[in-house]
């Protein structure tokens, strides 16, 4: 990968097909390769925004533009036969007559690619990718605001890079709140794209590329000013997306100084080290790609051993024995210990005791739980997370919210189109 300079990075926007092809071919002959590609505007005369970079190591690549659904499918199949898979994919136009643009390279495998998904299916496929250990590489949206369509690429994720694409079609305060919340965790945007209706799709990953900047829903003038400000600071478009045409054009972009991920190292601090423990903890956080953890060993009221372990880039705050963690699932440890103590004190309370025999939980209206399996849930099921009842409904189900007589939190509500530019 490469650190960007004015000599090895080029970006352009609002070019016609002929202008784009001329620029692309000139740079490709100089060993530049596609970094970002966006097709936008009417299918009768699409426009292009793109970025290309010259890496130290040149790889074989192909680019296709202004392709119909059937043409892109044919391109995909013929290039796959040569060992090429897409790594950038964009689309514009209505759902029944889209146009596609994509960049291909050789991976050693063919990435899972879909180019006409409904919003619901796109969300579902991202969850499936998480479950099987893959990650989203690139995506774009097209179609109508009332029924957006998505095209996307997924690849294996052997390094277990954490990623989030909950923001598939957001705007206003919701988008800004999510951005601030994700940034607070150390994550950064790695993909931004406009969606129909002036809204935005944004993916975050827990990786570092040094200092970066991101902005969405920019007018052409705002994008140009933002681009120039970042260029003066040594940052260039890493992802560049455009939507609309003419005066309605809007840009979304991520600026960075390079496209390689900052390497992480294992660090530890605390009481005198025990080599075997340090090695084990280091292996765990590297294998699971955890930012860090803290451990403590005690006997009765005496603390015997306490160390913090960090797996992060230089400059990332170190985890120490005194680091405070958000409660979240860390409470499960204390809950399990408390339950075990109760079992020691009361022999009638066992792992096979049912939850309802102890708590007798009811719905907000006073009735029995609607799921008949609820009565069979045991303490063991809770501790092992093996009840078989689907999780997450309380966070996403409108029925659950209505039953509780509450309202959806801001992050779950649709907001007005548009969102502020931000870093």
From TrEMBL:
Highest rank taxon of the organism: Bacteria
Keywords, sorted A to Z: Hydrolase
Domain named Beta-lactamase-related: residues: 278-392
Keyword Manganese: no
Pfam families, sorted: Beta-lactamase (PF00144), BTRD1 (PF17660)
Disordered, as annotated region: 400-423
Hydrolase recorded as keyword: yes
Biased composition (Low complexity): 409-423
Record-level Gene Ontology MF annotations: hydrolase activity
InterPro entries: AmpC-like (IPR050491), Beta-lactam-related (IPR001466), Beta-lactam/transpept-like (IPR012338), PGH-like_rpt (IPR049511)
TM segment ranges: none
PANTHER family attached to this UniProt entry: BETA-LACTAMASE-RELATED DOMAIN-CONTAINING PROTEIN, D-ALANYL-D-ALANINE-CARBOXYPEPTIDASE/ENDOPEPTIDASE AMPH
Protein name as catalogued: Serine hydrolase
Organism this protein belongs to: Sandaracinobacteroides saxicola
């Amino acid at each position: 990968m490469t650190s960007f300079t004015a000599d090895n990075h080029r970006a352009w926007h609002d070019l016609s097909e002929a202008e784009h092809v001329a620029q692309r071919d000139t740079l490709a002959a100089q060993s530049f390769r596609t970094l970002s590609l966006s097709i936008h505007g009417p299918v009768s005369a699409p426009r292009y925004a793109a970025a290309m970079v010259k890496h130290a190591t040149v790889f074989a690549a192909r680019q296709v533009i202004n392709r119909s659904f059937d043409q892109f499918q044919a391109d995909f199949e013929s290039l796959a036969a040569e060992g090429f898979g897409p790594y950038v994919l964009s689309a514009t136009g209505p759902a029944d007559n889209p146009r596609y643009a994509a960049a291909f390279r050789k991976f050693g495998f063919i990435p899972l690619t879909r180019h006409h998904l409904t919003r619901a299916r796109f969300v579902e496929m991202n969850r499936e990718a998480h479950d099987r250990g893959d990650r989203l590489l690139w995506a774009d949206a097209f179609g109508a605001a009332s029924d957006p369509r998505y095209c996307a690429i997924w690849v294996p994720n052997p390094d277990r890079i954490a990623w989030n694409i909950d923001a598939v079609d957001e705007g206003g305060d919701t988008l800004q709140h999510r951005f601030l919340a994700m940034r607070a965790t150390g994550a950064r945007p790695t993909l931004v794209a406009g969606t129909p209706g002036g809204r935005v799709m944004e993916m975050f990953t827990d990786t570092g590329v040094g200092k970066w900047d991101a902005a969405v829903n920019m007018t052409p003038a705002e994008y140009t000013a933002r681009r120039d400000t970042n260029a003066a600071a040594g940052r260039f478009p890493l992802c560049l997306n455009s939507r609309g045409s003419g005066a309605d054009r809007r840009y979304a972009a991520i600026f960075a100084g390079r496209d390689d991920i900052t390497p992480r190292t294992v660090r530890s601090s605390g009481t005198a080290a025990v080599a075997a423990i340090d090695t084990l903890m280091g292996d765990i956080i590297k294998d699971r790609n955890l930012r860090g953890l803290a451990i403590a060993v005690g006997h009765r009221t005496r603390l015997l051993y306490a160390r913090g372990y960090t797996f992060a880039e230089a400059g990332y705050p170190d985890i120490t024995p005194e680091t405070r963690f958000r409660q979240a699932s860390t409470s499960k440890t204390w809950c399990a210990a408390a339950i075990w103590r109760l079992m020691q004190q009361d022999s009638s309370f066992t792992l096979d005791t049912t939850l309802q025999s102890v708590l007798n939980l009811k719905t907000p209206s006073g009735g029995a739980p609607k799921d008949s399996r609820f009565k069979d849930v045991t303490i063991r099921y809770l501790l092992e997370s093996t009840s078989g009842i689907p999780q997450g409904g309380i966070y996403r189900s409108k029925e659950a919210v209505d039953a509780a007589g509450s309202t959806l939190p801001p992050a779950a509500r649709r907001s007005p189109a548009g969102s502020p530019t931000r870093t």
